[in-house]
Amino acid sequence: MAKRCAITGKGPMVGHSVSHANNKNKKRFLPNLRTIRVVLEDGTTRRIKVAASTLRTMKKQSR
C-alpha cells in the first residue's frame, strides 16, 4: 500500500542523512501516517491512511 496521505496527498520525501564528518547517505523521510475510520455519506465506514499533521488540522477546524 502506498505511503501517502489520503486527504492531503503527502508522501515520502528524499534527502540526505548527514554525519558529523559531513558524509551524506540517501534517506527517505516518510510521513507519519495513521489509519482512521471514516463514516461516508451513505453510512458505510472505510479505513483510510491520514498524516498525523492532517489529523491535528482536522481537529483544530472541528472546534
Automatic annotation (TrEMBL):
The terms under GO molecular function for this entry are:
structural constituent of ribosome
- UniProt-listed InterPro entries: Bacterial_rp_bL28, Ribosomal_bL28, Ribosomal_bL28/bL31-like_sf, Ribosomal_bL28_bact-type, Ribosomal_bL28_sf
Q: Record's Gene Ontology CC terms?
A: ribonucleoprotein complex; ribosome
Gene Ontology BP annotations: translation
Q: Which residues form the signal peptide?
A: none
Q: Which domain of life is it from?
A: Bacteria
- Provide an example Pfam family for this protein: Ribosomal_L28
Alphabetically list the UniProt keywords.
Answer: Ribonucleoprotein, Ribosomal protein
Concerning its family, UniProt says: Belongs to the bacterial ribosomal protein bL28 family.
Mind telling me which NCBIfam families this protein's record contains? L28 (TIGR00009)
What's the protein here called?
A: Large ribosomal subunit protein bL28
From which organism does this entry originate?
Campylobacter ureolyticus ACS-301-V-Sch3b
